[in-house]
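DUF2974 domain-containing protein
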Amino acid sequence: MINDLLTDYDRVCLTKKAYEGLNVGDDFVVNGKLIGRIVRDVYAQDGMQAYVIENQAGRRDEVTVLFKGSSGLRNGNATTWRDEWLNTNWPIFVAMLTSRPKLPSALKTASSYLNKWLVEFPDAILYIYGHSLGAINAAYALANCRHPSQIGAAYLYEGTNIWRLLTRRQRQVAGQMRHKINTYVDIYDPVTLGYTATHKMVGKLHYVDSLPISPIKQHMWGGYRFDDQGRLLEKEVDSRFLQSSQMQTRFLSGTSELAQFLSGKDEYRVSDWKKITSQKLTQVKDRVFNQTFLKDFEGQDQKLRKEIDQLKQKDEKDE
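Tokens:
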């Protein structure tokens, strides 16, 4: 299986390609390695996006499913703003803060498609990839997988922990495949909200040994580092991770006001949301975020950022 031969660096590059212009019928190549041919390009009405890559060259068919993440606040148009942020990302965030979560339809759509492809490719082993919203969709789809034996492995990057949104049955299914699902978490990326205990998550934790940079670059793998063999630098859970978890626990348990504040999106037109969201976030910062882990965490990293800058300056002088 070609997926089993990829390095950590290859897998990150593979997942990044979801943000490129991909076309059905094209070969899907990562760092000179042919993964297969693109056979499906799905853009569902609720914004769920995924690609299916098939490889029939081996002894057994191999299918790679690549769930696409959201286009982002900076690059989204009116459609992506509605489908990805208002209808999916926003409700997931609100659901994390409430005791009565309402799941976005994109998660259920991802589940339906994954189970459909498992039936459509009955003799194939499937490998699942996803980043950000794509990781969230993939995690939920895996928790609803009807044929776990067909899943070869999954690689999920920088998504929110949806464990608290799952039913007991879904947690059992995810637990059966825990050893196959690799979940990568950079604690400096605020999108990776909710990882407060390593056993309460979809998959096994890969704690990235990252460095703090700007938020957008951080979310787009900017803090990831690799050795000469393409292996990702990781570390064991340490006091820094536990501290982040404690801050997030306080944040999630004390923000019912924020959940109510964010849940009234239907009263606005999509075209108004960029302006209104900016106004709302300013109010959120004043009302809630002054006491959250986000501000605390950022403040505690100022010293580390200075040390990193000093090291960079030293390296430049040495060169």
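Residues 80-84, 265-274, 284-297 have pLDDT under 50 and may be disordered.
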